[in-house]
């Protein structure tokens, strides 16, 4: 993808993270006390309760994808400014894309299985 | 290698340049720190379903036991202090990032002009400076709130 489109996506994902990250922080800190939010499954904002709710689980998936893109694109920009070279540029992009996709796959697995687990 | 060292020096030592350099360095350092935390957080929350080896629906009791073990492992003042610092970084990066978003759209910027002594950056208008300091103030507030949540010192 061209650099200008990547940076446009960087800003769009940044704005998206303000919304989804706000929901995430609200469910963990504001809507219930932090230590209650860390419980496994015995109150409306416990860990599994959040994954049980399709909207909240979906917003976590959204946050996962947005932060993965924003974070790894940010790392790419920093590494790109640190040193330049064709092989280096390609290696950095490829490596960060692979790591980013791996993180999204692992996080999606957590969300999907936790959603099923919460239905038990 | 010296190219890399010089670049790192320019990024990481923001003194003598004014607030815009501080905002630049803090934005980058916080971004890298938050990305590393994000990866750790995805790994950590992976233990909600029983850890990295689980790719099909595990027994409920097993997942609960692994999560409680993870919580016991994370119940450590050092991790709590780290989360408090992350609260600072999240709020700084978010609000300062919003300032950069406005900058990118050309909003709140000053008019370009002839470079004259004392060479103040036309881009650092009152609105831009205010947004930078708001991000610092909110970050400190988030830090205080997090310290209260994790260490129960202030009982706000």
From TrEMBL, chain A:
GO terms for cellular component: membrane. Its main location: membrane. It holds the Pfam family Sdh_cyt. The chain crosses the membrane at residues 12-34, 54-79, 91-114. It is found in: Membrane. One of its GO terms (molecular function) is metal ion binding. This is Succinate dehydrogenase. Keywords: Heme, Iron, Membrane, Metal-binding, Transmembrane, Transmembrane helix.
Automatic annotation (TrEMBL), chain B:
Keywords: Heme, Iron, Membrane, Metal-binding, Transmembrane, Transmembrane helix. Pfam families: Sdh_cyt (PF01127). The chain crosses the membrane at residues 83-109, 130-151. One of its GO terms (molecular function) is metal ion binding. It is found in: Membrane. It comes from the Archaea. Its main location: membrane. GO terms for cellular component: membrane. This is Succinate dehydrogenase.
């Amino acid at each position: 993808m061209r650099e200008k489109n990547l940076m446009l996506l960087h800003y769009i994902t940044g704005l998206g993270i303000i919304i989804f990250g706000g929901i995430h922080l609200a469910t963990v800190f504001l809507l219930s006390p932090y230590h209650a939010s860390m419980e496994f499954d015995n109150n409306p904002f416990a860990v599994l309760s959040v994954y049980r709710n399709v909207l909240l689980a979906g917003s976590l998936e959204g946050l996962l994808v947005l932060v993965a893109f924003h974070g790894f694109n940010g790392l790419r920009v920093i590494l790109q400014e640190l040193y330049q070279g064709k092989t280096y540029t390609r290696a950095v992009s490829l490596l960060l894309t692979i790591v980013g996709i791996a993180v999204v796959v692992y996080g999606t697995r957590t969300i999907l299985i936790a959603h099923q687990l919460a239905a038990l | 290698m010296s190219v890399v060292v010089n670049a790192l020096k320019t990024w990481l030592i923001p003194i003598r340049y004014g607030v815009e350099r501080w905002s630049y360095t803090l934005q980058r350092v916080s971004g890298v720190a938050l990305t590393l935390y994000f990866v750790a957080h995805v790994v950590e929350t992976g233990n909600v379903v029983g850890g990295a080896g689980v790719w099909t629906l595990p027994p409920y009791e097993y997942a609960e036991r692994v999560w409680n073990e993870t919580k016991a492992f994370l119940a450590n003042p050092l991790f709590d202090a780290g989360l408090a610092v992350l609260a600072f970084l999240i709020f700084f990066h978010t609000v300062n990032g919003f300032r950069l978003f406005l900058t990118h759209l050309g909003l709140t910027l000053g008019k370009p002009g002839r470079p004259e002594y004392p060479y103040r950056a036309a881009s650092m208008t009152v609105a831009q400076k205010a947004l930078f300091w708001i991000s610092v103030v909110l970050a400190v507030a988030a830090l205080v709130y997090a310290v209260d949540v994790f260490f129960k010192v202030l009982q706000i």
